Every structure is written in structure tokens, then in C-alpha cells.
Amino acid sequence: MTKSEFVDSISGDFASKKAAADAVEAVLDGISDTLAGGGEVNFTGFGKFSVAERGPRQGVNPRTGERITIAGGRVPKFSAGAGLKSKVKG
Asked: Which residues are paired to 58 by β-bridges?
């Protein structure tokens, strides 16, 4: 499901499709800004968005076969909560 399809699916709960799109954008911006600042966002029963540190690792250049070191960094991480897991299981 794309973002626009998601907005379409929830637009019935809002006064207009624009209001639904603004709400979705506000939530995504809030999560992104919090993660960029190194924080975490926890929705009880749904899941937790956090930032994980990834260390440097070894890789191989596919053209030359030369071994290279891939730099580490910060990556976003999502852990599903119990409510989401049970809903997906059915």
C-alpha cells in the first residue's frame, strides 16, 4: 500500500482528503524528526520506532572482487508490539 492509497483508505474518518493527507504527513514528520534527534517513538500495543547503531562491516566490490570496508552509521528500526503481532497473526 502506498502513502496515497493509505490516505484514501482513512479519508472517510476526516472532513476531507486533504485533512487526512495533512494528518498522515504530520505523523510521519513527527516520527522522522524525533528519530533524527536520536529519540524513540513508542505506540503502546503497536510498536516502537528507534535508532540503531550499525558498525562498520566488510563487503566486496562486485566489479573488482576487492574487499572493502563499509562504514557504519545510524539506521531507523521498528519493533512490532504485541497488539500488532496478534492482529497480523489473525
From this structure: 69
Centroid of chain to Cα 76: 7
> To which residue does cell 528500526 refer?
77
Instruction: Kindly report the pTM of this predicted structure.
Output: 0.79
3-state secondary structure 26-73: HHHHHHHHHHHCCCCEEECCCEEEEEEEECCEEEECCCCCCEEEECCE
Residue 35 in grid coordinates: 528519530
All three cell numbers of 12: 472517510
Determine whether domain 40-90 maps to CATH 4.10.520.10.
Answer: yes
Handedness of CA 26, 24, 43, 13 (dihedral sign): positive
Residue 82: the pLDDT is 95
All structural domains of the chain with their residue ranges: 1-37, 40-90
Q: Write the burial class of residue 48 (CB in 10 Å: 0-12 exposed, 13-18 middle, 19+ buried).
A: middle
